[in-house]
Structure formats: C-alpha cells, structure tokens
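Re: [ENG-882] Designed sequences occasionally contain unexpected residues at chain ends

Forwarding the minimal case from QA. Structure tokens:
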C-alpha cells in the first residue's frame, strides 16, 4: 500500500461506491468492517487533518507550481517506486512484467534523466504497479478486516503488512539511508505524499464533502485494490469501466 489511489480509478470506484451507498443505510453493518466505531473516528480525524493541513498545502502547491514541473516531480516519485514494483513482480513470479518494469526503470532513469521524463511511454513500455499487499493476495492471503490508519488512510490487515514492509524494505529507502544524508528519506516521503494528494485533489475533496463519505471511501478503496490485485481485470461487471480509465490514464501520461 505505498501509494494513494490513482485519481481516475479512485473516481470510478467512488462513483460505484456512491451507487452502493445510496442503496443502503448508514447504520448497516459491513461484515468486513468489524471495527467500524474506531474506523469512523479515524475517518473523522483524517478528514480534519486533510482539511486543515493536506488540502490547503496541496491547493497552494497546485497554484504556485505550474503543471510541467509538477508532472516532472510526479514522474520522479513514480520512478523511485519502480524497484519495489520490480521486487513484487518477481515475488509473484510475473517474470515478463518484471522485465517490463526493469526496462522502464532503466530507460526512464537514464534517457529520462532520473525519471523526470517518462520516455518509456513513448517507447511503448506500459506502466503497471505492484506492491506487497498485491503479492500477498496473489499468494492467497485474505484481506482481513478493513481499518483506517491515522494520517494515512484506508487499509486492511493484508495491506497494512505490505505497507509496513515497504517502509522498511523498499530498496530505494535502504539506498537513501546508506547515503547518510539527514532528512533525505523524510523529504522523499513528504514530496511523494504531497504529489499523490495533489493528483487526487478533486476526488478526495468530493469524498470528504459527501455526507456518505465514510462509505464512499471504504468502497472506493476496495474497488481500487480489487482492480490492482487482478492487474486491471477484476472479476466484476465493472471491468470495462476500469479498463477504459486505465487506457485514458496512460494516454494522458503520454501527452504530458
């Protein structure tokens, strides 16, 4: 769970979740949300933090920094996550995808000047994401109870393990630590969080502003993770919607 939702996929998931939420009552107990009391409190806490800190900072960031530099920063952050994607491709025995990830990493790091430019897209090397939560799912580990992590967001037992492992085992994090430059890893984490919050700005705002925001976020999270775990082909009637969004997202990135 190292990354926040892809904005377009989250928007689609939120739309699906809104439809489901409208068909149910707020008091309905979700069997996969046994800690709903705590989760609603954590949701309220995160909403307050977002509205008072994350949202204003993201708004200033979008206003002050033009789109081209912001896209370059986003590209660098994505490139720094690629080694972890590669590790999880291998752990899932997806060796063809691992080769694609390695090619993308090498091309963008060298020709793309450290990942500032996504040269891989113009070369026809598609992007995909993988993390340890997805790997554990591929190994048959169940998702476990849904819960919200303060300051971070929605998760479940499986993804929390994946997220915690990423924090300590990410090859880039380990490499940066060996440079012994004080605060460098913390700076990377802060910039990455700011970039992801800014890219999902409108979607997150709309969820927090909705009276059924808790249900929306819970369902959107599950839809998004299902999509990622099944490599863009979840076993549901929503496949076509997510596939179309995935294609649109790739097209948008190519044009930037």
């Amino acid at each position: 769970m190292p990354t926040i939702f892809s904005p377009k996929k989250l928007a689609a998931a939120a739309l699906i979740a809104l439809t489901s939420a409208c068909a149910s009552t707020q008091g309905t107990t979700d069997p996969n949300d046994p800690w709903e009391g705590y989760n609603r409190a954590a949701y309220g806490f995160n909403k307050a933090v977002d509205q008072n800190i994350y949202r204003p900072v993201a708004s200033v960031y979008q206003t002050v920094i033009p789109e081209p530099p912001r896209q370059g920063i986003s590209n660098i952050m994505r490139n720094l996550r690629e080694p972890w994607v590669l590790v999880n491709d291998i752990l899932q025995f997806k060796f063809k995808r691992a080769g694609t990830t390695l090619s993308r990493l090498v091309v963008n790091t060298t020709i793309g000047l450290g990942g500032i430019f996504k040269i891989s897209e113009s070369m026809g090397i598609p992007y995909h994401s993988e993390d340890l939560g997805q790997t554990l799912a591929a190994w048959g580990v169940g998702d476990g109870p849904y819960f919200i992590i303060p300051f971070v967001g929605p998760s479940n037992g499986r993804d929390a393990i994946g997220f915690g492992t990423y924090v300590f085992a990410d090859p880039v994090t380990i490499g940066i630590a060996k440079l012994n430059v004080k605060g460098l890893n913390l700076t990377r984490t802060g910039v990455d969080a700011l970039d992801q919050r800014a890219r999902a700005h409108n979607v997150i705002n709309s969820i927090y502003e909705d009276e059924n925001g808790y249900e929306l976020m819970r369902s959107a999270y599950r839809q998004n993770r299902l999509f990622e775990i099944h490599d863009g082909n979840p076993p549901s009637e929503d496949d076509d919607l997510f596939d179309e969004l995935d294609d649109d997202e790739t097209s948008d990135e190519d044009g930037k």
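QA comment: On inspection the terminal residues look reasonable. The longest helix spans residues 36-64. Proposing we downgrade this to a documentation issue.
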